[in-house]
Design goal:
elongated, disordered N terminus, 71% helix, two-stranded antiparallel ribbon, single chain, disordered C terminus, mainly alpha, 4 strands
């Protein structure tokens, strides 16, 4: 942009071997400077600035050398100006596309990104033909939905509206070209111009990688996974080629032309690819992508303390968590996944606390994710501590109306529920519902799940009317959100069936379980683990109704499915459970031989799978011991029950209800053996444990007291017998008055017999007559009163019309 030819000549004079003073004057070798009139043949040479220089043919060759030199001087400067304007134009398209994305104008965003792509291709003189993904849009006339898209097929944390920290790179990247806009080139600085041209050309390559990256995010946002992966792979390929030609120091340096370093683009692309692989359930591929991102970032930045590394480590923790929670029967593999999940998640938390502020939202995300890992190890106290920290940060940063706050409240509610802190569990569940209903309305799957969780709490409290109402609301919400046939409908039906089972309404429980089983069979298939759970529940209903053959039929079906799934000769903990239940059912039916066969198979399988000291061996050991005791194989019974007691004490401690139960059965065997001192010792230990664990007013305490009285009676110690019978009666009258009055009548009969043996007639008659009145009130004949094992006609002293004293 020179004003005159003289300016042009002056600017080139210091660098040229020839000095052109003006177009009308020329300097000839060996001649003076006087001007001579000639009409030489002239040649027009157009230089880079568009000016015409008239050079005589005699100096044509020498001028060509000079013109070439001038072109070399002028072309980088003009090319830089052209590249600079082109770059500004492309960046404008990209930034406007990012703004459109954030304002949910997704179609406009794609058009702007495509305009940027076309402008870049025009710069390279390429034909602006649509890519494969663009051709797909053109053929099918695809239009993006301008509403936020959520993954409705997964439960709570697998959907993108809840933050697991998997969406660190969840939107397109803009560019910062402010430094390019303000940068100028001195007129005589050819080296600066050349360097700037090279830098701008590199920026063009990075711009193209960013365009592909941003298109990939648009497709990812709308779950068009194939198109998203194609775009992201294009971006990764471009930036990888760019880095292959760069020095290592250039990788982490932000480009002055784009404000982005090639390394940052590559890391973002690798993690976004990993995110898509995770959403598709390709966990192993996602792990590779995130590990590559971590290793590359460590190599380039020579440090671990980077937000991008923390993001990748957190994502790895999330993937390992899902692998551990859905890993199936391979317990070693699940344990390995859980260990990796804890390791990477804690590393991410440590980096985030060091690099970011302690109240940063990413720190809250890490706390929330780590809480889930503690739950898998039954570390509910540690989980609650993490959840409360996450809740505090999210409340301060986002407010209680945030979906992320609500998700953590839901998690905390579940943890409080597990430790039976029901008030806090209800409070956190309600916090989730308040937010979720405002965001989604009541007809939403997550609302239905939490409503059923509240129903379970009221069920545990014994507030059955509230529980039933909430179960029905939960079922209605789920059906409105998901339709009649969905696996979560079956889950809620399963909970409702359990409610009816607990309340003793076995017919209603059978109907509800059957409905859930039908849905699971249609939706999940015959071999799905959830269907097996429903089958087992139906089998248990038949057991409670004493329909032994129907129960055996169902549990045999479960066993066949498990053996087809794991192999006929497989040793599996789930198969052992089914064998155990079949054994118990055969025992109830009276088929002792079949019962022992299935129980011994279950015991052998549990020893193989779990070892000799695992707690799960104890129910089978105890059941076989009881069967041997009933068959008077008392020494074998003592051996089996003793092994069960040893394992339970080692795993549960001395002061445990299961330990007391085993001791009680050992006492019964000793009683059969005639070892009364051993019997009394075991029963006194049982009573001590039960009072400590259950409290003094519990029906199990009353049972043990009665058994002690019975033992002392056989030991010819009427005073101690009367003492424990009276203690048992006192507890029974408090806890069994409505539930089981006939047990009270039995204890009164025992007390009457002790008084009879002592010749104490008045209290004897009071006890016998009260027992008779209870039998009468229970529509039974008062003659059921047993006096020294003989039946007396107590209906004479307790006529039907006689009022209670």
């Amino acid at each position: 942009s020179r004003n005159s030819k003289e300016d042009y000549v002056q600017s080139t004079q210091p660098l040229s071997a020839f000095a052109l003073k003006s177009p009308s004057k020329r300097i000839s070798p060996g001649a003076d400077n006087t001007s001579k009139k000639r009409s030489p043949r002239s040649v027009i040479i157009r230089n880079n600035s568009g000016m015409n220089n008239y050079i005589t043919s005699s100096y044509r060759s020498s001028y060509k050398l000079q013109a070439d030199s001038l072109q070399k001087i002028r072309r980088p400067e003009q090319e830089c100006m052209r590249l600079k304007m082109q770059l500004i134009s492309i960046a404008s398209y990209i930034n406007q596309g990012c703004d459109a994305f954030h304002s949910r104008q997704y179609n406009l965003a794609m058009r702007l990104f495509q305009d940027a792509h076309n402008s870049l291709k025009n710069h390279r003189n390429e034909v602006s033909s649509p890519s494969a993904s663009e051709r797909f849009d053109l053929v099918h006339g695809r239009q993006f939905d301008n509403d936020d898209f959520t993954t409705s097929n997964s439960y709570i944390y697998q959907r993108i509206e809840f933050d697991e920290g998997m969406c660190t790179y969840s939107s397109p990247m803009d560019v910062d070209i402010s430094e390019v806009k303000t940068e100028t080139i001195a007129a005589d600085d050819i080296h600066h111009a050349s360097r700037m041209k090279i830098r701008l050309e590199k920026a063009m390559n990075e711009m193209e990688a960013l365009i592909w990256y941003n298109k990939g995010h648009l497709y990812r946002h709308h779950q068009l996974w194939d198109e998203a992966m194609q775009c992201l792979n294009n971006s990764l390929e471009l930036v990888s080629c760019r880095l292959a030609k760069s020095r290592k120091d250039d990788e982490s340096r932000s480009d002055r032309a784009t404000g982005r370093s090639p390394a940052s683009i590559r890391i973002a692309t690798m993690q976004t690819i990993g995110q898509i692989q995770y959403r598709l359930g390709n966990y192993e591929e996602a792990i590779i992508s995130y590990k590559n991102s971590v290793n590359y970032a460590k190599r380039v930045h020579r440090s671990l303390n980077l937000p991008s590394i923390a993001s990748a480590l957190n994502s790895l923790g999330v993937i390992y968590y899902h692998l551990a929670s859905t890993g199936g029967e391979n317990s070693e593999s699940n344990e390995s996944h859980l260990t990796n999940a804890k390791k990477t998640s804690l590393q991410a938390l440590k980096i985030r606390i060091e690099v970011l502020e302690e109240d940063h939202l990413d720190v809250a995300t890490s706390y929330n994710n780590i809480g889930r890992l503690y739950i898998m190890d039954d570390g509910f106290s540690e989980a609650i501590e993490c959840y409360e920290k996450a809740l505090q940060i999210r409340e301060d940063k986002l407010g209680k109306d945030s979906l992320d706050y609500a998700a953590t409240a839901f998690n905390a509610g579940q943890s409080y529920h597990h430790i039976h802190d029901l008030d806090k569990a209800l409070f956190r569940y309600q916090e989730f519902l308040d937010v979720a209903i405002r965001h989604y309305t009541k007809n939403h799957r997550d609302v239905a799940v939490v409503l059923s969780g509240k129903a379970e709490i009221y069920q545990e409290r014994g507030e059955f009317d509230k529980a039933l109402k909430l179960y029905e609301e939960s079922l209605e919400s789920a059906k409105n959100a998901l339709g009649e046939e969905h696996e979560e409908i079956a889950m809620i039906l399963n909970r409702l069936g359990h409610f009816h089972y607990v309340t003793g309404n076995y017919n209603a429980a059978h109907e509800v379980y059957s409905s859930g089983l039908k849905i699971e069979s249609q939706v999940l298939g015959a071999k799905n683990p959830n269907r097996l759970v429903s089958l087992c529940n139906l089998g248990e209903i038949h057991r409670q109704r004493k329909e032994w053959d129907a129960a055996i039929k169902i549990f045999k079906e479960v066993l066949d499915i498990q053996r087809n799934q794991f192999g006929l000769d497989a040793q599996n903990a789930e198969i052992a459970i089914t064998l155990h239940v079949l054994g118990l059912t055969y025992e109830k039916k009276g088929s002792t031989e079949n019962a022992l066969k299935h129980l011994q198979d279950a015991l052998w399988m549990r020893r193989v799978v779990l070892g000799d000291d695992h707690l799960d061996l104890t129910p089978t050991l105890t059941s076989i011991g009881i069967i041997f005791s009933r068959g008077n194989k008392l020494n074998l019974a003592i051996d089996l029950l003793g092994e069960s007691l040893r394992i339970r004490k080692a795993n549960l401690g001395e002061n445990n209800r299961d330990v007391a139960f085993t001791l009680y059965n050992i006492a019964l065997v000793h009683q059969k053996q005639g070892l009364l001192l051993e019997t009394v010792f075991c029963l006194l230990k049982v009573l001590s444990i039960e009072i400590s664990v259950l409290g003094p007013e519990h029906k199990d305490v009353a049972i043990t007291m009665f058994k002690l009285g019975e033992t002392f009676e056989r030991y010819n110690d009427p005073e101690n017998a009367l003492k424990y019978f009276k203690q048992a009666l006192e507890v029974e009258q408090k806890v069994l008055q409505e539930e089981d009055p006939l047990t009270i009548a039995r204890t009164l009969s025992a007390i009457g017999n002790i008084y009879l043996s002592q010749g104490n007639v008045v209290p004897m008659m009071e006890a016998f007559i009260e027992a008779g009145r209870i039998y009468q009130a229970s529509d039974m004949n008062p003659s059921n009163v047993s006096v020294n094992r003989n039946m007396y006609a107590f209906h004479i002293s307790c006529p039907l019309g006689a009022p209670a004293a």
